[in-house]
Specification:
Blueprint: H1 2-20, H2 30-49, E1 58-63, E2 66-73, H3 76-87, E3 94-101
Parallel strand pairs: 2-3
Antiparallel strand pairs: 1-2
């Protein structure tokens, strides 16, 4: 009886853990998720390298090659530079620039 209960508990835990490893955010495959993560990392690195852009104030998310930028910029030039850096990153299909300019 105890063995059955333990087996069921372990099976439930395994099922719960496996569901947690599933691809999220509507990616079609695990490969696409990895590609999107790589693109996000590349864009963040480019923002961090550029002295005209405050990488700490800008968030980057990628879904199926489309990069979404959000957060705050100090000027329209900083906003445009962040978008240009994202667009020129390998693997980026399109860029959605939701950065708000704040004085």
């Amino acid at each position: 009886m105890k063995t059955t209960a333990v087996s069921l508990a372990l099976a439930g835990l395994l099922a719960f853990t496996a569901a947690g490893c599933a691809v999220t955010r509507e990616q079609s495959t695990v490969g696409q998720y990895v590609d999107d993560t790589t693109i996000t990392t590349r864009v963040k690195a480019r923002l961090a390298e550029d002295k005209a852009v405050s990488a700490m104030a800008i968030s980057v998310e990628t879904l199926k090659g489309t990069v979404q930028l959000s957060g705050f910029a100090k000027s329209p030039a900083e906003r445009s530079q962040a978008e240009e850096l994202a667009r020129s990153t390998p693997g980026v299909v399109s860029v959605r620039n939701d950065i708000v300019v704040r004085p």
